[in-house]
Amino acid sequence: MSKQPIASNSPFVPPVGVPAARMAAEERRLQILRVAISLFAQKGFRGTTTKEIAHAAGVSEAIIFRHFATKEELYSAILDHKACASGGLDDICNGVAGAVESKDDRAVFEGVALTLLEHHEEDTEFMRLLSHAALEGHELTQMFWQRNVLQMYDLLGSYIRERQREGAFRQMEPKVAVRAFLGMIIHHSVNNNLWDQKRSVLDITNEEAARQFTEILLKGIEARTDTARTQHTGRRFAAGVQRTTAKKKQTK
Amino acid sequence: MSKQPIASNSPFVPPVGVPAARMAAEERRLQILRVAISLFAQKGFRGTTTKEIAHAAGVSEAIIFRHFATKEELYSAILDHKACASGGLDDICNGVAGAVESKDDRAVFEGVALTLLEHHEEDTEFMRLLSHAALEGHELTQMFWQRNVLQMYDLLGSYIRERQREGAFRQMEPKVAVRAFLGMIIHHSVNNNLWDQKRSVLDITNEEAARQFTEILLKGIEARTDTARTQHTGRRFAAGVQRTTAKKKQTK
DNA sequence: AGATGGTAAGTAAGTACTTACTTTCAATAG
DNA sequence: CTATTGAAAGTAAGTACTTACTTACCATCT
Prior knowledge:
The structure is a homodimer. Chain A is mostly helical. Chain A is 64% helix and 0% strand. In chain A, helix 5 (88-101) packs parallel to helix 8, helix 6 (105-122) packs parallel to helix 9 (174-195) and helix 6 (105-122) packs antiparallel against helix 10. The longest helix of chain A is centred in the middle third of the chain and has 26 residues, at 140-165. At the A-B interface, helix 1, helix 7, helix 8, helix 9 and helix 10 of A face helix 1, helix 7, helix 8, helix 9 and helix 10 of B. Chain A binds a DNA duplex through helix 3.
């Protein structure tokens, strides 16, 4: 369906920066997408009319249906577009790659936390969109889930597992720790951007939140070097290796 | 439907337990409410038509509007009804009162966690309803927030503050700890009931979840008796009091 | 001139809500 | 022990308006 009329017969580059009243198809398509994202985020799929979208985009309703066969297709295109393109995951991977390499636990988790919090804050629209989609049972929700959330669990989960092998973290199911950590962060985001936008309950910066949540998690899952209460996890890991080398390097 | 000429002329005593085709006003009102709760929870306010509600209740559409002036009023009546009646908060307060009294940290937090998780599980409908309402910006969302969530922050927050004074927990803003804790639990609930109903990522019982999250939180916020890393919180609290007496009584 | 960006003015199927009317039923009067 | 009555429970068939989506027709670029 994607038409691409550029350079049909002329070898020139199309004037990209020109704000013409009449747009190229691709341009218009993207503009409609952007406008629709904002509206769907505010009012949900059913709460947004094609008329509104058209008006907000400054075109007639028929144009919408020239670019997207149905309202549903427009919606899917958005979810598709955002779920693939906005790889918040890549940012995170790149951002903490160094910390993972050097086993700087604090930097790893604080980095992930801060990236997520900031990402959510600057893209509240998408969070709302996803929430609406999830509630409405839209299938693409699961695509997003599989593409982003599962990988996050893998990423953090395998890091934790590695650090457990090294004796830095206590024995437990890594996924539980990941859920706890993501829970703190995502719940905090949802609170700030959806439920309590005035922050009447708790008003802290993203940096502070990332630091504090990381602190709680790390202390919560670290292997204790002191008065070890071994009662609940029966076995102590076999290879009691480089405890000292992994002593934690929070120099940052 | 089944006609049942109950004691038509017999002296008074209205037959309360009889399932007549024709209902008393109050009865019908409640039935409509119940039906509407379920439908609004599934499909949201805008996604549910008054026609559907009427059909599901087995009456004509006009009946809906005899009991509720507008669709909006019906919606508000539901939120009102649920937010007031279902005081999940009281259950929690009563449930952990003893543990709070005896300063059994583990029992306090595990109790709160388990109550919340089970409450969410058996009333998924209301969770969905609230989510829809929050996304749609319905005013009654904030009523619920103020009536339930704020009190939860007060309850747990003041408990934590007390235990900090006793030297059991490290110095930090109690609300942050509460947010972290509620974050783990509520996020876990939302995951299970909304995003990942098949529990493909993490499948644990509510008891297990409550135990593990409590473990992480308590270890995460407890005052350390060992190699104290004082670098990040500059001041050590002035009244270095009964550290020993509050040594933690996790005997349960 | 012919393809492409754009529109005005539809249409059929909903939507919330009303109106005018019928049925049920318990408390009374005869 | 009926018969009457009147209010409340119920309905069928609307109304006025909105919705997603179409059709037939311009306008403007190579």
